[in-house]
Structures are given as C-alpha cells and as structure tokens.
Amino acid sequence: MRNKLPISLRLGLAVLAAAALSAQAQPGSYRVDLPPDAPLALVSADWGASRATARGGAMLLELHSTLQLRNSGARRIRGVSLLVTAQDSTPGGRASLTLPSLDIDSGESFPVRLDLRLMRPLQTAPGAMVDVQLDGILFDDLGFYGPNRMNARRALLAWELEARRDRKALLAALERGGGEALRSELLGAMARMASQPRLEVQAARAGRATALEPEREVALAALSLPASPVELLSGSIRIAGDEARAPHLLLRNVGSKPVRSVEVSWLVRDNHGREYAAGALPADVDLAPGQTRPAARDGALRFSLPGGAPASVAAMSGFISSVEFADGGLWLPTRQALQNPRLLGVLPLSGEEERLVELYRRKGLDAVVQQLQKLR
Amino acid sequence: MTRRQLHPDAPTLALLAGGELPFWRRWSAAWHVRLCSQCQTELRQFRALRAALPAEALDESAAADALPGVAWSVFEAEMRANIRLGLAAGALAGEPESVPQPAPAAAVPFWRWATVCGALVFVLGAGWWLGTPRHTPTPVVQSVLTLPVEGDDSGTAQAPGFELLVPASDTARTEADFNGGTRARLIDGETGRVTLQQVYAQ
Lengths: 376, 202
What we know:
The complex is a heterodimer.
Chain A: H1 7-22, E1 30-33, E2 40-46, E3 51-55, E4 58-71, E5 77-85, E6 94-99, E7 109-121, E8 130-139, E9 144-145, H2 152-195, E10 200-204, E11 216-219, E12 221-223, E13 230-240, E14 243-253, E15 259-270, E16 275-287, E17 292-296, E18 300-304, E19 313-325, E20 330-331, H3 341-344, H4 351-363, H5 365-374
Parallel strand pairs in A: 1-8, 12-19
Antiparallel strand pairs in A: 2-4, 3-4, 4-7, 5-6, 5-8, 8-9, 10-18, 11-13, 13-14, 14-17, 14-18, 15-16, 15-19, 19-20
Helix pairs in contact in A: 2-4, 2-5, 4-5
Chain B: H1 10-17, H2 23-35, H3 37-52, H4 60-66, H5 72-93, H6 107-130, E1 142-146, E2 161-165, E3 172-176, E4 182-187, E5 194-200
Antiparallel strand pairs in B: 1-2, 3-4, 4-5
Helix pairs in contact in B: 1-3, 2-3
C-alpha cells in the first residue's frame, strides 16, 4: 500500500470496533452471592457471552453463564433453586432457575447453565447488574435449606414427590415384567407425548387484548380427583376470543389439615371440541379444615396453536393438581387418579416421566434401568 | 509496512504540485506532506521545475498551435481506426497468452477500497464473534417484554405482558399462569438434567 488510509475511515473503524466491544458486559457486573453457611459453594462462574444492551429506557440483559457449584454439606442434594435478579421492581427483572432431579453427593461439583433474558432500568444504583442468590436446596431426606423467597421449597418438593411416584411405578413394571414391560411403559408414554395436542400459552399482565371479540363470563367446569384434600366447588372466567382472564374460584378444604396453597391446572376446549392442557394457577390461600374461600386473579392468558394462529376458547375446566399444607407437607394426585379418561389424553407427562423417556430415546433402556435403580 | 511505502509516489507529488489531483487525493497527500519533510522537499522540487518550464509547455492548446501543419483530426481518426482494426483482428485470432494485459487504470483505488472493505468485514465479524455465546446453549428460554404501542388506544393492541420463546424442541415445555409469570421446563437429553426457568412479572 503506497498511501495511508484516510483518517476519517480509520476513525470510523475504531468507532465500530469500540461499539462491538462495549456490548460485552464487564465481568464485575455479575455477582453470585451464596450465604457463608450454605451447604453449597461456588467453584467458578463463567459469564461467557453475557451482555447488556440498551432498549429504549430499559436495559436488556442476556445472560449466558455456566456456574460450577459444589455440595459442601454432608447430605445428598436432590434439587437447587437460584434467584436471578436484575431489578426487583421491574417486570421481567427477576427470574428463578430450579434444578430438580439432581443426585449430588457430598463434595461433588456440578454445573448450572444459565440462559436467560432479564430487563432492568437504565438508571439504577451502582453495584452488580445481576445478582444470583440461593433460594433453596432440597436434600434426599426431603429436608430443605434456604430463604424460600420464591417458593422454591414447594416447587422442589412437588417435583421430587412426583418423580418418586413415577419412578416407583416404572420400577414396579420392571420388577413385574422385566425390561420388556419397562420398555412397553416408556413407549406408551412416548406415544402419549406425541399424540397430545399442544397449545401455546402466553401470560398477559392486565387488560383485555382485543376489543373485537365480545367478552363473556363462563362457568368453569370443575374436575374432582379422588382423595384431593381441597375441592374446587365452582368458578368462573371471562373469555374473549383467544383470551381468558380474571378467574374466580371457590375452594373448600375437605381434609383434616390446614392448607397454605393450592395449584389449579387448566384444561381449555376450543370451538372444535378439542381439549388442551393450558398451564396452572398457583394460589396462596389459607384454608382451615372445613373452610370455604374464594380465590381470584386479575391476570389474563392468551392461547394460540402451534404456528401462531389464535385458538378460540369455548370453555375451560380446572382441577386441583397439588396442595401444600401449613406444616409443609404436600399432596399430589396418585397415578391411578390421573388415569381419569378425561385427563389421560390431555395431561402432559410429568417432568420425571419426560426426563426418563428422553433418556430412553437417547441412551436406551439400560440407562433408564440404571437411573431407576440408583434413585430407588 | 515500511515508512517509505506510506509516502505519496512521485506522480502524485507532481500532480499535487500542479494542483491537478482530485479533491480527496489532494487533501490526503497535502496532509501527508505537511508532516513529512522528505515529501516537502520533493514537492518543492516539482514546483521549482514547473516554474522553470515555459508557460506554453504546460498549455495543451498552445502545444497544438506550435505544430500548425499537422492535421490533428485526420491523425486522430487514423489512430482510432487502427485501434479498432487491432481489436477485431485479436478477436478473430484469439488473444495470445503472451500478450500482457494492460493493468486496469483503477488498480490502486481498487485495492484501497478492498482493504477498507476487508477491515470492515473483520470488525463486524469480530463484533459478531465476541457477542456470540461460546458454549452451545441448552434450549434457550427468553422472556420478552411486550410493551404497548405509544398512542395506540384502539383497543386492539396487545396488553403488556411476557411470553417465553422456546425453539421448537421436544424437550422444552412452557407454561404460563394468571400471576403474569411464565415458566419453562427444559430437559437436556444428553445429561438427563432438568432446568425449570421462571420469569416473574411482579
């Protein structure tokens, strides 16, 4: 080259390079804050390509990280829940990351992958942009450690009890009929999974999404599962087109123990008569034995078919899918209760069933047998 | 690259001395000459040489008048005809490989712009590489804040809320609840590890 590049071009290149680099968030922007007495220690934190970009008056944080944690306690860990906070008061500024189905021995390390997007205001107090805190740890004896700010205990315990229930059923099949019986169970679960219709569900915080469809209030059909300590007596919900909002429920504690919270699962029927599972409503309701109380929410859900077409909602029904007692105990429906023909073709597999089916699909029957025997 | 290679070449300095460079090259060369004593010396020499030449030697119309006996238009027509004849003959006979091809007149500007384009591609590529996650992500769950369009009170705008966008995958399942939050269940088929992610609206 005989001549220099023009100065303006060189300046432009420098500006472009600076812009590319500034998108990378600084390492000090992230903090992992575990209590000193926690039976969990941070080994390393790789924030990889995490980055922060301005979007109007807010900052969009894309987190891509791998944390390496170690069980520094004496008990085996079965689940961990972390709270990831960019800003407490900003919608979308807080998330939780829960890892159930773990089996981490004392002194053992394990990775936690974090791929999240969070929002926070541009102008905030100095300090870390993202805080990762411990919300809870579940041990193999079902003991719990942690502040439980986001109900990590309920989520971890529900997963663990459901997983034990489903593993026990699969193990029974294995002991009854050997590998072929277990294979048959897994193939049946795969077939159920493949045949179930899927519905995309979006949550909207407030207000009606459309003024084109007339809104109507419809009664909720309540499904009753055997041995449920809480009954869904009645309910109503407002439906307009592909949106359902403001459910009102009437709940009754028919058991003998005080109840702290319930989770109601929803089934949606469209105009063609097809039925879909459509999420759940966890509700904190203090219910003494024999007491009846209403529970209501203002939120709204929008339903769409895979591919994005709106799904017209004709009717909705609900059933009690879990109950948390005041003493910390948890009730879940039995597998027999879930054999209800109305639910069988609609309810998705449990998380543990899906995990084992995926393991079978990828690694074969031996891997599933190994898991069942290890976690029995 | 040596310091010498960055100097404007002699023709450039000569054209600069006569004020015959295009604006951009003149500005660039003048900038260099301001800072380079060696080029200042060469430029002075060109200017001195130019001042020493008689004014007629620098004037094209004066050069034509200096040879009044030559029929310039006939001469030009003959030259053009010869060039066309040569091109036609070359096309019929095929271009001999040994004939050197004339270098394109814009060779230097081409390489300059090629270098600039290469540098731009490099910078943009580096920016993309730096911004890409260096691990293979598990099914990515991302919360997307849906904000109302300002000034849109038609009633058909979507209410503010969240949605989880999960790539089509058999191992991911999303759920929403009336509290405004959205959660996803992700299962890594290789490790069998499960991750439950929930983004809170409140």
